[in-house]
Design a protein that fits this description.
By secondary structure, the chain is α+β, with helices and mostly antiparallel strands. 26% of the residues lie in helices and 23% in strands. Helix 8 runs antiparallel to helix 12. It comes from Geodermatophilus obscurus.
């Protein structure tokens, strides 16, 4: 060790007390009452045990937390809603941003500025009154920032692109403890990398992005009887590629629990769920687009119709209550008759597997083209996404990942390199995260990481190392 090198000392209770004096929000150390509630996740399969949790209420709190972490040699993780945790932030400084709820809509510029804890449901409601919409995902309960930094694939994506493509600027706290406002002009490389690089480069405390004029929205879905899965899935694979970019769709094999809150036709059943949204200028023509696949099987429940942007959750009907789950996604380069047959053989209604969902989602459209201002979003060349979700309940925690990976392996002949970062799910190591990007983008990301976080301070979630593979 040279004379200029100093080994950081682990924090003491006095150090944590000093941090409390700097931070407006709550600061909780291991063993403190309220820590578990502060760091609770929506995906309850992951339980965080950080050394310190900082409940940030402003960017200055985030700056203080990062400086504290680096002074004591601790890694940093961040969480807003807890929807996307993939590993325990054990021993880290975990910054929770759920209290950062600022939202500003500029109807003339058609932009929104949101702070780090804002959920999409807040943005959709605020923008709808101005005839505008943001590029949310399948659930508006998800946080805007984390979703967008991972790319952001939603029901409006084929029409308007990835959510990250609409970002105009962001504020970010980097590993040096500095708060920067970043645009395409101020720091082109960091602007490129953060939009798609998830949380690898720092903690984004605010995001400004473009809103879009709301066309006529027609959407919803159909639940088909499980016995018609083959007919529906084969109809889907032939029908979806014929859709215009104004339409987006996905189809999923769902195994639903026997819960009383579910409609009787679905309760305890394995069904096929077709999801559909048309965002164009001819709602009548949009609604008619679903006819070919609607006729492929017995419809147990559902329909499509006009909907406001605030009702977009009705397309995918994602669960609303926290649950323990294992998830994993891959990209497909084709959806052939053989692909569908392989999916049905591995996870169709006639197969006993402990999975909740196996989904095929159509990509392409505006998501298949370069962003107006290039970014690090990966997955643009793939026409399809395959996503598997299983319950991590007692007795299944070892089985579900094994079965889920088995389903993905069965589709390997049609898998293409890369991944949607938000759909990476369970990863074995940082190198698997890096593999989501093509080699040229990977090296560019690593160069930015080495420039702004050479010590790998930001190591939570889907993190990669500055040293690379």
């Amino acid at each position: 060790m040279t004379l200029t090198e100093v080994t950081p000392a682990p924090p003491t209770l006095l150090d944590v007390d000093d941090l409390r004096l700097e931070v407006r929000g709550p600061v909780l150390a291991a063993g403190d009452d309220g820590l578990a509630a502060e760091v609770a996740t929506w995906n309850t399969a992951v339980t965080h045990t950080p050394a310190v949790a900082v409940g940030a209420v402003c960017a200055a709190d985030v700056v203080a937390a990062v400086r504290f972490a680096t002074a004591h040699g601790l890694p940093v993780a961040v969480q807003a809603t807890g929807h996307g945790p993939v590993r325990n932030a054990d021993g880290a400084v975990l910054v929770t941003t759920s209290r950062m709820q600022g939202v500003r809509i500029d109807p003339e510029r058609r932009t929104a500025r949101v702070e780090a804890g804002v959920k999409w449901q807040t943005v959709l409601a605020a923008a709808a009154g101005h005839g505008l919409v943001g590029l949310c995902g399948s659930s508006s309960d998800v946080g805007v920032v984390g979703y967008t930094l991972g790319g952001g694939v939603g029901p409006l994506g084929r029409r308007f692109g990835f959510a990250a493509d609409s970002v105009l600027s962001f504020e970010i706290v980097t590993a040096d403890g500095g708060l920067r406002t970043v645009t395409a002009d101020s720091d082109p490389e960091l602007f490129w990398a953060v939009r798609g690089g998830k949380g690898n480069l720092g903690i984004v405390t605010a995001l400004e992005f473009r809103l879009h004029a709301v066309p006529a929205l027609v959407g919803g879905g159909f639940f088909f009887a499980g016995r018609d899965a083959a007919a529906v899935l084969h109809a889907f694979r032939e029908w979806a590629p014929t859709l215009p970019e104004e339409a987006s769709t996905s189809v999923a094999v769902l195994r639903l629990p026997p819960l009383e809150e579910l409609p009787p036709p679905l309760r305890g059943q394995t069904v096929v769920h077709l999801r559909f949204l048309y965002a164009g200028d001819d709602p009548e023509a949009g609604a008619a687009l679903v006819a070919p696949v609607q006729a492929a099987g017995e419809v147990l429940l559902g329909g499509v119709g006009p909907m406001p942007p605030t009702a977009l959750d009705a397309v995918h009907m994602d669960p609303t209550d926290p649950m323990p789950s294992w998830e994993k996604g891959v990209l497909l380069d084709d959806l052939t008759a053989e692909t569908v047959d392989a999916l049905l053989a591995a996870a169709g209604p006639g197969v006993e597997v402990p999975l909740v969902m196996v989904e095929v989602r159509q990509l392409g459209g505006a998501m298949g083209r370069p962003a107006p201002v290039p970014n690090a979003v990966t997955g643009r060349s793939a026409p399809w996404s395959l996503f598997v979700l299983g319950p991590m309940v007692p007795g299944l925690t070892e089985v579900v990942p094994q079965v889920g990976r088995g389903v993905l392996a069965a589709l390997a002949p049609w898998t293409t390199p890369g991944a949607l970062v938000n759909f990476l799910g369970d990863v074995s190591d940082p190198d698997e995260v890096l593999a989501a990007w093509e080699p040229e983008a990977r090296e560019r990301l690593l160069a930015v990481k080495r420039a702004v976080d050479p010590g790998d301070v930001f190591s939570g979630g889907h993190a990669f190392r500055s040293s690379g593979a």
